[in-house]
Amino acid sequence: MDAAKKFLSVDSLKPGMVTAEAVFNRFGSVLLWENTILNTNMIQHLKNMGVQTVAVLNEKPEIVYIQKEGSRTVQKLQYKLEYELNVQKTKRIFNEISSGKPIEIGEVRPIIETLTSTSGTNRLAIDAIMEVRRVDEYTYYHSINVSLLCIVIGKWLKLSKEDIMKLALAGLLHDIGKTRISPDILNKPGKLTDEEFEEIKRHPEYGYNIVKDMDGIPGEVATAILTHHEKEDGSGYPMGLTGDKLNIYSKIITISDIFDAMTAKRPYRNNDTPFKVFELMQHGSFGVLDPVILNVFLENITNYYVGSKVRMNTGEVGEVVFMNKLDFSRPVVLVNNRYVDTLKSKTERIVEFL
């Protein structure tokens, strides 16, 4: 056994202990990630889910807590710096294309290698995704975020390393066609005219034309860039293709694109809470998104939000302690020492993610 960890029964767990491995439920979904500092609510959640044993770090809880809090702060700062550097690299590439300069795959590959090597820190990645983005730089942040989400979904689907690298590349470049669209249209704070919206809808075609002849861009990556706004039922654009005509990269990008766009904080509009987005994706996307990929995405990403702070419509602040699988948008929340099942409650609901 690894000397750095030990296995304890769930009844022996104490607040402040740190998980040495991810904790899974009987269906294979993650309940808690590795290096999570346990609190009372998390331990109770594990008991409620029928977990028997948990691997924890084999050190004194109070020492581990201090060490992990310090190392997590440093790790978060390092991740944020690396994330911002990748955003600026992406911005430079997009600007070069916008000015008519062709790009080489060698300029893109270091970004992809960095993203795929650090995406295992899912908590840090999702924290970065939830940050406020400047309106004039939204496209660059969005490109990085979609690539990150594609990587973690690819891993949840147990795709090969080669597929994940291609998927990361397609996610990063999925909106490259927007370099051919006027910034006045892209950054317009108000409603687009019909003509402006039609121009926006051409960005998949523009993107495909940019990358299709680039050395080192696989054909399936170029195709995914062209089809990332197509839908399973044929209601998407630019060609109205149905799901059987779409490759897996395209299907994963579509889900990543929608989630990041809907949860993005922007200066000119409020973002939806993740729980509202879960509701729309789980119950409002029948026939639109690939059901298998969507289910894997929701089953996994929603576990990240256990432990999150939320504001209720009563004004009270609570902590999410359990995700309802029948409706991910209606979790159980601990509010002032009482449990509120928002799936059953007719009066209390989440209004803000803190």
Lateral strand order in the biggest sheet = 8-7-6-5-9
Number of helices: 13
Which geometry do the CA atoms define?
Answer: globular
Name of the CATH superfamily of the largest domain = Hypothetical protein af1432
- The number of E-state strands comes to 9
Description:
With about 350 residues, this protein is α+β, with helices and mostly antiparallel strands. It folds into three domains: about 5-60, Alpha-Beta Complex (Molybdopterin biosynthesis moea protein, domain 2), CATH 3.90.105.10; about 80-270, Hypothetical protein af1432, CATH 1.10.3210.10; about 310-354. It is about 45% helix and about 10% strand. The chain has 13 helices and nine strands. The chain has helices spanning about 40-50, 60-100, 105-120, 120-130, 140-155, 160-175, 185, 195-200, 205-210, 220-225, 250-265, 275-285, 290-300; strands at about 5-10, 25, 30, 55, 310, 315-320, 330-335, 340, 350-354. A five-stranded antiparallel β-sheet has the order 8-7-6-5-9. It has a two-stranded antiparallel ribbon with strand order 1-4. Strand 5 (about 310) and strand 6 form a beta hairpin. The relative contact order is 0.09. The model is unreliable at about 60-65 (pLDDT under 50).
